Amino acid sequence: MPTSPLPPASDELDALLRLIDDDTPEVRRWVADRFADSTGDLSEWLATRPHKLDHHERELLTTMLAPPRRAALAREWVVPTGGAKAMREDWDSFEALLRALSDFLHDGITLRQPLSDALDLLAEEATEEGVYSENELRGFLFESKRLVGNRADYYDPRNSDLAWAISEGKSNPLGLCLIYILLARRLDLEVQGINFPGHFLCRFYEDGLAYIVDCFDGGRLHPQDILLANADELTSSQKQQLRQTTDPGTIMIRLLNNLIGSLQNAGRSEDAGLIESLRSTLGQ
């Protein structure tokens, strides 16, 4: 039975980097094949090397590291039996899928913290700053501008990579809300997701009153009863959606749909096709 090639060791990686922009077809194929045998993430190794990649080299290496990251995502994508409906309140499975997506969307060369570590450290920072309520967490994340709406690159696929979003301090409405929700869970707080069409939102309760948070708009706070009473432009269906709380399975489907669209818009058809196949495992 054939065995998979061993990943390139450090000495071979040095040689591969020296040949990464070689125009000889045979050399280029060999270099690409050997990088494809790697884990797809060389960021920690690259941080130890004296040679700093230029823009062209970074683009070439990111492209060559994409196949093993696709393979890793397909391998690590484990959905509960029953798909999205079975996830319900299974936030552990939900976060595991987010981690797999984050590793896949990573460029493989930029040094950064894995998603769960980044969330843990952000939660520790919030605790050190005396965050003990959902509203204080809102201020800590959004009023402080630790996280802002990525208006310049709203459709960037990296907005669905929460580790990138935490590192860069920006994301789309769904990405920002998910960081808020996952941090709240680490702090034993409750922040709910609102699957409003076109603009994901959050909700928390304080003193028996519901508040809706627009994370993309600097964490802007809306008392739910006042918002619903004065929003004449909203249909009855939209008002009902604002009252409802969404579950992890539904959120994951929305995130994958967003990601498919952004990947297609970026011309990454192979990656978009992979995400489409993963979406099908959720049963919707």
Automatic annotation (TrEMBL):
Domain of life, source organism: Bacteria
Protein name: Transglutaminase family protein
TM segment ranges: none
Domain Protein SirB1 N-terminal, first and last residues per copy: 118-257
Family: Belongs to the UPF0162 family.
InterPro entries in UniProt: SirB1_N
Organism field: Luteolibacter pohnpeiensis
